[in-house]
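S.,

Sequence below, as promised.
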Amino acid sequence: MKIRFVFCIAFWVALATPLLSQQEIEGIDQINDWIVYKTTSSSEQLHCGIMAQPASSSYTQNGKTVKVSRGITRLTISILGGRGGTELVSIEAGFNIKRKSSVSLVIDDNRKFNLHLDPEDKILTYAWPLYSDDEKIVSALKRGGKAVVTMLSQRGTTVVDTYSLNGVTAGLKRAAVACQ
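The prediction came back faster than expected:
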């Protein structure tokens, strides 16, 4: 889990501050609701994938709707190691997720997966599934119409992000071609 965490932090820092990074990130295409990207690290290892922002979000605290301020929010499927590489799912919450709380990913109201935080780290803005669930989640995302991520902020706000899955399959195919 620590390796994935390090990759996610490095990747998102690179996206947020490309001038400070040794990675070059290139947006290749936008397929429906998903952006196809590739990145080359200083070691010249190619990584590709797709990412999307929520189509809608809701925020409640103590049963009442509240307004919040958030940072970058994304659902990402990264392809590590180029074409045929491992597909890894992650979310960036845009806020600190409450430690020891659960983060759920529900696809089309019937496929539920748990996402996890790194329990040893102080940065709690990223979550991802166990490696054993990545392939199942990617398969469900390809077949699905929407994905709903539910999480709890450190301030006690329940956040529900809904993502359109329109373009996942075509986006992953495009990303795989970019990784050749």
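Residues 2-16 form the longest helix (15 residues).

Coffee later?
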